[in-house]
Prior knowledge:
The protein is an all-alpha fold. It has a single domain (4-141), classed as nmb1532 protein domain like (Four Helix Bundle (Hemerythrin (Met), subunit A)). 87% of the residues lie in helices and 0% in strands. It is built from five helices and no strands. It has helices at 4-27, 31-64, 70-94, 97-129, 133-141. The longest helix is centred in the N-terminal third of the chain and has 34 residues, at 31-64. It is elongated. The model has no long low-confidence stretch (mean pLDDT 95).
Amino acid sequence: MDSISQYMQQHHRDCDALFTLAEASAADKDWASAAAQWLEFSEKIHQHLRMEEEVLFPTFEAETGQTQGPTMVMRMEHKQMRALLSEMSNCVEAQNQDRFLGLAESLMLLIQQHNMKEEQMLYPMTDRALGDAAAVLARMQAVD
Ligand SMILES: [Fe+2]
Ligand SMILES: [Fe+2]
């Protein structure tokens, strides 16, 4: 069975791979591919954010009693990601390459720094705090 860390790290990698595809298509001005790949990436990353906000963070907060710590920072960064994602969706629709690629760089940086904090701190802390990772994983997988 996967730990929370293993499962969520793989989810990060899967999101990154989809993002890279969409970015490459936009760089080629292949907007039909970019739109399809962007949609796939958006759906996956929005699901990831919900899995964390609806299951993982509340579990972490309940197990550790920390509600003003790392999860608060992570929720704020999710908000910044959602703002960028929404702006970038508009760029895909408008086929605005310059703006899309500019925002893509900002989003990439934000995601890299955010994911590093989760992978090095939050996920391992959650794994250590949890009695039953399988039950939490199952609840996360049920988030659509
Ligand atoms: Fe996150
Ligand atoms: Fe994450």
